[in-house]
Structures are given as C-alpha cells and as structure tokens.
Write a structure and sequence with these properties.
Strand order of the largest sheet: 3-6-8-7
Largest sheet: 4 strands, mixed
Helix content: 25-40%
Distance between the termini: 26 Å
Structural class: alpha+beta
Number of strands: 8
Number of helices: 4
Order of helices and strands: HEEHEEEHEHEE
Radius of gyration: 17 Å
C-alpha cells in the first residue's frame, strides 16, 4: 500500500486499524506483545489452554469483522481502489515472557517459544494458502468443539519438519 498511497494515509489507517485490533484482543482478555511489520502479536495467559484458545479465536473473528467494516465503509479512504486486509494466525502452547536484550532486565518485553515460531512461519503462508485466518493444528484441536473448523493443508515448518495440519474457522 505504501507504494501506491501516501505514507500519511497508510499510517493513519494503520494506526486506526491497530487500535481496533488491540481493542478486540483486550475485549477477549489478551495482551498485545508487539507490532512487527504490520503484524500485531498478542498472547493470552492462564492455565486453561482450551479456554485461552477460544478467547483468541473470538478475538481473531472480531478482528476479521472490524477489518471488513473498516475497509468496506470508508474508514480506509482508498477503499474503492484497494481493500484493506489483514491476515490472522492462531497458534497456542506454552511460551516464555520476559525482557530480552539490555542489562539488568532493561530490554524489551516479549514472548518466546514454539507457538510464536509456529505463528510467524504460518503468517508467511496465509496469503499463499488463500485464507485470511489460519489455525495451527494443535490449536484447532482445542477449538473443534466450539467452532466450525475446516482443514486447509498440511505444511512443513522448521519446528514441525514432518508437517502440521492447518485449519481455518468459519465465520
């Protein structure tokens, strides 16, 4: 978008969209970790992995909905020429949180672990798979009783060399 539209227009739209995405995440008990190259990285903490996955899925569906509204109803001022889109990835499991870099805990707060690695690898594939929302196999297993889950494809990942099934969630 930055190549076709003014940086100011894109930045203004992204900041507005980011606020909407953050609100959706927080509405379902999540926390935003960081924003990397247009990606919002969020996490949910707790002991009930199934319940946490459900909250994350609800947030993802809400983000998908507000993004459609944002694009379709003119909040993105170039909506007639270019649809504002986002891709969403859900990956769950145990990770670490804490400060990285800097001395004495003065670094940046972040999350680390297999679920994060999986999410970043899947994020690179979402558009190629023709989907807007991809759910990692282990997360889909946590969601299958609460959502309509459809298998997309099995993909090889660095941390899943034998492959991992991917799914999407129906609206």
């Amino acid at each position: 978008l930055m190549q076709k539209y003014s940086p100011e227009d894109v930045q203004q739209a992204f900041v507005h969209w980011q606020r909407m995405a953050t609100t959706a995440i927080e509405d379902f008990g999540g926390q935003v970790d960081k924003i990397v190259a247009g990606s919002v990285v969020a996490f949910w903490k707790g002991d009930d992995e199934k319940k946490l996955a459900q909250k994350a899925a609800h947030a993802a569906l809400q983000i998908r909905e507000v993004t459609e509204d944002f694009s379709e109803h003119g909040e993105w001022k170039h909506h007639q020429e270019a649809h504002w889109e986002c891709t969403l990835v859900l990956s769950s499991g145990f990770g670490l949180t804490g400060s990285v870099g800097g001395e004495g805990g003065q670094g940046s707060f972040t999350i680390l672990g297999d679920p994060v690695t999986t999410a970043f690898q899947l994020e690179k594939l979402v558009s190629k798979l023709g989907e807007q929302l991809i759910v990692a196999g282990p997360t889909a297993q946590l969601l299958k009783d609460s959502f309509v889950i459809t298998k997309v494809i099995k993909v090889k990942l660095k941390n899943a060399p034998d492959g991992m099934d991917t799914y999407t969630i129906a609206s």
